[in-house]
Amino acid sequence: MSGPPPGRYLKPSARRVKIQTGFPQPELLDLPWSTPLAEWPDDVLVAYPRGISRHVVRFAQVGDRVLAAKETTARNAAREYDLLRRLRQLGTPCVVPVAVVTERHSRDGEELPAVLLTEHLNFSLPYRVLFSEHPDANIADKLVDALALLLVQLHLAGFYWGDVSLSNTLFLRDAGRFAAYLVDAETGELHPQLTKGQRSYDLELARTNVAGELMDLLAGFHDDSHEGPPLDPSMTTGEKAHYEPAAATTALTQIVSSAPVPVDPFITSERIVETYQKLWAELTGAERFPHEQRWRVAERIKRLNDLGFDVEEASLDTDDDGYVQLVPRVVEPGHHSRQLHNITGMNARENQARRILTDIAQFGRALYPGLPDDLTGALWMQEVYSKIMSAVPADLRTKREPAEIVHEVLEHRWFLSERLRQDVPTSQAVEDYVESQLRSRPDEQVML
């Protein structure tokens, strides 16, 4: 028995459309492709904040995922999709490309622009959201530091961006700092290796664009001061803490409300140049030293590890004068993230991992001296991580990622211990953190 004519029972949104995707998902066919993106109905869209873009951009719920949809030309969509896939394969921080949708037509037969679909980065923050309360130079500095690191990673991979800016970047919290992810690769080019001129042009674009974006932000800013709920200094402890948590990092200043430092767009934009140049020199620069100072090889590797990089390949050349020249050839980001995952199975960004590894080390020295790292990590997961996460109400876990919650609880515990001049157990630190800090914060996973 022959079936119905092709297309007879298809929804109108699925007619005359071509979807190229590496993630076949039938729900993609249900999106209203015959409607211009700017006119998509509310029941399809998700109310996420959109950054500044030259294109029409919307967020849509597709199955259990939220996808960012951007209208552009078919050529640009296919090109950007391919670039993002190649960048992902190289391990660079960028959004996940999902599909290219072409051959769209309205119900009247009018041709519509192609659409590039990318996966929304969970818990990500557009830079403007981070200034929603006040323009703070400390936040601006952390943003440009993250952007500088991203640019270094992209350049090491041979990617020329061509439109470096805060607007084309998404940020995720990373233990009091931020991690930056590339969002828009439309103007980018991937090469085996970038020239100094290409890198310099990207860096100058970054300096100019960051200054302009911050000036625009300040010009339209209305100061709505906000003070978070105070910490409870009267909290009493009822049990003896089992180990002293690692000392707080500079993120501690974010726990206590303080007057914001004014943002200077020009000083901040110069910072990205300085940070980039220091990172690039450390990661790629040649180091020459006498043969007797071979310890400098291990010292250089340690400095790179401290920056979050592993050395996958390096050259060691000697000359007739008895000198050695060391040049890192291949460096791989994610040193601390890999180390944490190896001993706990936990996924975290680099600074989160660094912070948690410090706590695991102190936990092990205090309670299980001499135990192998993997066993110490497993015990820390049971005795610290699990207890922290189980004490956080389920409806509040959309406010921060698990690794960030753990980091903030450890910071909070250290701060309370300092204020009360006594060791505060984790259970009470979590309780105070939930009520005085986490509960009042927005749900960054769902609605920024």
From TrEMBL:
The UniProt record lists the DUF4032 domain at: 278-437
Domain of life of the source: Bacteria
Q: Which Pfam families match?
A: DUF4032, Kdo
What name does UniProt use for this protein?
Answer: DUF4032 domain-containing protein
Q: From what organism does this protein derive?
A: Kocuria subflava
